[in-house]
Amino acid sequence: MLLFDSKIFDGVQITGGWLRAPDRVLDYQGIAYLPTDIGPGFVYIQPSYPSWSAGYEKQRESLERLRMRGAITVVLDTLPEDIPAGLAVFISPDTTLALAELATVARNRAQAPLVCVTGSVGKSTTKRGVAALLSRLGATHESQRNFNHYQGVLLSLAAIPSGTAYSVLEFSSDLPRFTLPKAMIAAPDLAVVTDIQFDHTDCYPSLAAIADQKSLLFRGLRPGGKVVLNRDSPYFSRLAAAAYAYGALEVISFGTSPLADLSLVGWSPEAEGSAVEAVHRGRRIAYQLGIPGRHNVLNSLAMLSVLVALGLDPQPCLPALAELASLPRHCSLQCIDLPGGQIQILDDSFSSNPASLRSALETLALLTVAGSGAMSGRRLLVLGAIDELGERSEELHVSLADPIMRFGIDRVYAYGDQARHTCAALPASTVALHTLSAAQLKDALLADLRPGDWLILKFSRHSNLGERLWPALRSLSTGTI
Fold it and tell me: What is the CATH number of the domain that holds 389?
């Protein structure tokens, strides 16, 4: 599958030059900036410091090791001491710039419609669902994992394969200086905003500011581009006005409102997902959804709205929604067998904000009703402090106490300094532990667990709590602790 040939480096304004050029036109099979993502026939972009995070410095590997992983070309910012045989090397003073130029070349070459999905919650699930639906109609490229930051979007663009019918990328608004540049490079044909909720309030102190930052994605729309928005959001009108101001041809809406273009008629939770009925311009659309939770029902409306916006008939694609599975650590349900019973675990530990906690607790309640009826076991919550909330951190952590009490959580194991504000707002009998020690939390939780319990894991992957807890939880069934 031809992604690039040497002319992209030699003749299309890629800043830098060859230290060792390839001796023939190469078929690149992919592109990566993490050594562990390299596959056979890959281009590897060595992250430059300081334009990339300093953390990437720790992941540098020798050229020989990169070659052994499968790289056939590497892009570096410094001269290497030696170059293994069979490896082409391109030198750029800043590999972020080289990646941006590669992404621009690939995007300009691509003829397939490109969909960018953003929002405070639901980005990864919606992106995956849109890709699954479009895959029923043609070859579809999607961003790896949740590569939604600046370098991740550039990588996903640069890796668009030739012959792709559709591309679907996840798009974040993390640091203000990155949102507009990556929007202009991505140049989407269709922009999707799932919802506006409190997230990254260290950068955006209000929901209006978050909505305005998300709307910068519309600035990059190609002529004739369209926008899909959540009609239930209080910021729908603000986002729609921005879309038209930035040149959108049309705004397509979804939600529970009867004013939405794709409107929810009804839904019912089932043991493994939901049965959903919606209406679009008088036409009823009924389908099974393979992932649980009301928030995912709304995400599925966003997914179908993409097909509507692209002028495609959703009906032939609906089986893809029934086949969707929860992404790892996105409200995924697992169980641990113990002598005398099981522990059910709802793992929503990929990322965290107040809205996603409410969604996880609501999903837990639905699962217990749709599955085995009234729940006999306790509801235990491992709650990690939420990062990147800035001056609103105390206020937003206090607000978490309301859904915790409303959904009947019996015991809370809280981790991180800011989680103390949540604990202070809860009844003392509900707080099993607040600690800054992951090891202490693990030991206390394991000592407390018993058959029949439901355990909710709600924290960010960056906390590393999952790496502590999951091996210990799995070992319960093997008796190795």
Answer: 3.90.190.20
Q: Which of 255, 289, 322 is the last residue of a domain?
A: 322
Q: Which residues of 136-159 are buried (b: 16+ CB within 10 A; e: fewer)?
A: ebeebbbbeebbbbbbbbbbbbbb
Q: Is 479 left (phi over 0), alpha (psi -120 to 50) or beta?
A: left
Return the structure tokens found at 314.
């959703």
d(CA 153, CA 299): 21
The segment with the largest mean pLDDT, out of 139-148, 209-218, 382-391, is 209-218
- Measured distance between the N- and C-terminal CA atoms of the chain, rounded to whole angstroms: 48
Residue 6 has pLDDT above 50, yes or no: no
In the chain, the percentage of residues whose pLDDT exceeds 90 is: 60
Q: For residues 436 and 433, what is the distance between their CA atoms, to the nearest angstrom? A: 10
Supply the range of the domain harboring residue 308.
Answer: 110-322
Rounded (5°) CA angle 31-186-203: 100
The pTM of this model reads 0.88
The whole-angstrom separation of Cα 381 and Cα 457 is: 6
Q: Judge if 311 and 339 occupy the same domain.
A: no
What single DSSP character describes residue 15? S
